[in-house]
Amino acid sequence: MRLLFASLLLCLCIPAVWAAETNMPKPDIGKGGQCVEDPQWMRKNHMHLLRHQRDETVRKGIRDERLSLKNCIECHASSKDDSVIARNDSFCVACHRYEAVKIDCFECHSGISKSAWLQRNAK
Amino acid sequence: MSAQTPIQFYDQRQARFKNRLFYSLVAAGGLIVMAGLYAVYLMEHHGHIITGMNNQIVWGIPHVFAIFLIVAASGVLNVASIGSVFGKAMYKARASLAGLLSIAMLAGGLTVLMLDLGRPDRIIVAATNYNITSMFAWNVVLYSGMFSLVVVYLWTMMERRMNRWTKPAGFAVFAWRFILTTGTGLIFAFLVARQAYASALLPPLFIVISFAWGMAVFLIAQAIIYAWNGNAIAPEILQRMKNLLGVFVMGALYLVAAYHLTNLYFAHQSGFERFILVEGGIYPQLFWWGYVLLGNILPLLLIYLPGQGKTKSITAASLLVILGGFAFLYVFIIGGQAYPLNIFPGYQASSSFGDGQIATYHPSLYEFMLGFGGLAIAFIITTVSVRVLDFMPHDKPYIAD
Amino acid sequence: MNDINIQRRGFLKTSLGVATVVIAPGMLLFDMAHGKSQPVSGKVRWGMLIDTTQCREGCNDCVAACNKENGLSGGTNGQARSPLPNPLPQAGEGANDSLRETRLKSTDSQWIRKIELKDVSSGRELSLPMMCQHCEHPPCVDVCPTNASFKRADGIVLVDRHRCIGCRYCMMACPYKARSFVHEPLHDQNPDVPRGKGTVEACSLCVHRIDQGQQPACAEACPNKAILFGDLNDPESEIARKVGSVASVQVRADLRLNPGIRYQGL
């Protein structure tokens, strides 16, 4: 009986693990690089940094570019379309879709890197 | 038992019909609520561009509905206060119905107000960031406080063991409601730069006007409930309540007149008064025909003219008072914004942003859907509650007090 | 022993001094490149002095510059708009036509606008730009239920769009009608100027430019140099000296809001 139960559990777990691995988001990290913390730390904590920094910047005028959303986008925008939100595998979209967490940032903020935006609007 | 009709035998066919009528009424109300929510969805999706509101008329039809509901919600409690605070038995019998109507209208009005926000999804922000200098922030507290106070008040009335707390709860509601309506008036009274609003008369005006609107709503609800149950309201009671409505209507009219007369007296306000009372197109029309004639003169005639003052004419008078209320708020809120701000006194101004011009406003269907959705919420709450709980006034044999 | 100590101290002092001289400008440059890590100072009060005698009627350069800088639809730089559902009422004289190449909707954001004025008693005509007056005691900040409207330490009145719930009470309270509500979803905003549907916005005095040591776009764009921008609190600044020497007024001074924008020749 116990054996049956264990094998049943195993049967259930194996596809789950397998599915989890194949469905893992593969975001287009753009240029990438590490300027704040290591990726695992950032995956867990980037929202706190952004939220803290946004209040510091808007309300006090502390413009610490290292932690600004604009600076994140600058390196993580896709090299194909200069955006972090344009496609399903874009840097922000890929994980947020996977985790089913809605982000409100890009209702107001541009998802395009500033350098690309300046180039496009140069004329 | 003189006031009540003789006991009727249980009529199955009529009961079944009433059951069906009840469900179809609730369904109709639900449909209107759904339409309102659909309008909200569209406003969320497309933005406020689909409403008639713009950068000149920033508050529109939703605010007319919301403010009417909130002001009437406070005013209807007057019935309860006369019972609980001043101890009049016939009003005490009606206190629970008044409380219910208050909760229902408050819920409807606040829903409209919240869903009209540019970012209703951020309503939690309003709760976590609180600006003590903002009248709006104070009103958030006043509204939610009122809501819970009235719930407690209803509880003390309906739960026998809590009955002894009815009086203190009634007092608390009485005081809170005054502060609440003052707060609603102050939302406008603190707008120093707008000719239409910066007036210390607004809080008392809103309080007295709330008495009239609340009483009118109550009389209509009461008439429907009595008719539903096949009862007739005792003529002495109706007599007293209609007289009270008449007094409130006259009081409100007096304060509105005082508000306009004081404005007329200040030279810098005469332009605005000329606009709102004479030259402003729809606004003077609505004010004189809608508010003064339909909302005051006609109801007063229906109440006081010899031969009038029966149930039907009082219900008609109440409906007219409510209609007049909407006309008044439309003129007050939208007319007040349509008149241009006097940024450069002594100069004639023109610009691409409506300086020196009367602002135009064409309310869209979606705004009305949202507004009626709020009314429907109040309607459903009342209908369902009256059906499942006992809100029917139980009059003792009438004794003049 | 003592000698060595003194020598060593001397050496340390010199090398420290040299290091400071060499590194400090580098640090400063680093600061400029990586933004400021210090909050803005309350000793500064940014303001403007607008010379209405230099402001030309029909000239719209400041408005166009503002629209371009902040990504407003504006309608002044020829961006085609969809046909208007409800056209703006005309003032009658048609003074507005010269102001706009394409017509604005009454729902379009206007952070700065040109107002044409005519003195009712004397008939004198003048033209001036109107925008958020960046009051010391701003009514919009008083009425905002969520503290989204706020005044930064350096006197700039801003809307924190992270907190704005779009109730529009500030628009009712502003005596200058300086604020606009975003009625439609927006796309392709300037990365430096985030703005979005359902929130209220107004002239930010080009805060993103000020923080980089630049002037507001309108002041830079004015062909007649009618807009003088600077620190009102710094007695050495051009604006402070000019405010101290020529007659200028604040609009609706009777409300005692002490705006940071002053007008000359009004």
Which key terms come to mind for this protein?
heterotrimer, A: 123 residues, mainly alpha, 5 helices, elongated, B: 401 residues, Formate dehydrogenase/DMSO reductase fold, 13 helices, 70% helix, globular
Descriptive notes:
The complex is a heterotrimer of chains A (123), B (401) and C (266). By secondary structure, chain A is mainly α. Chain A has helices at residues 2-23, 39-60, 69-76, 91-99, 114-120. Chain A has one domain. The longest helix of chain A has 22 residues, at 2-23. Chain A starts with a helix and ends with a helix. Chain B has a single domain, classed as Formate dehydrogenase/DMSO reductase fold (Up-down Bundle), CATH 1.20.1630. Chain B has helices at 12-46, 61-84, 89-92, 95-115, 123-128, 135-158, 166-189, 202-228, 235-265, 270-279, 282-304, 311-338, 365-388, and one strand spanning 347-351. The longest helix of chain B is centred in the N-terminal third of the chain and has 35 residues, at 12-46. Chain B is globular, with a radius of gyration of 22 Å. The model of chain B has no long low-confidence stretch (mean pLDDT 91). Chain C has 266 residues and is α+β, with helices and mostly antiparallel strands. Chain C has helices at residues 2-33, 61-70, 139-143, 169-173, 207-210, 217-221, 238-245; strands at residues 46-51, 112-119, 125-131, 149-151, 157-159, 180-181, 200-201, 227-231, 248-249, 261-264. The longest helix of chain C is centred in the first third of the chain and has 32 residues, at 2-33. Chain C is globular, with a radius of gyration of 23 Å. The N and C termini of chain C lie far apart (76 Å). Classes of the chains: A mainly alpha (123), B mainly alpha (401), C alpha+beta (266). Chains in contact: A-C, B-C. The interface between B and C is large, with 54 and 64 residues.
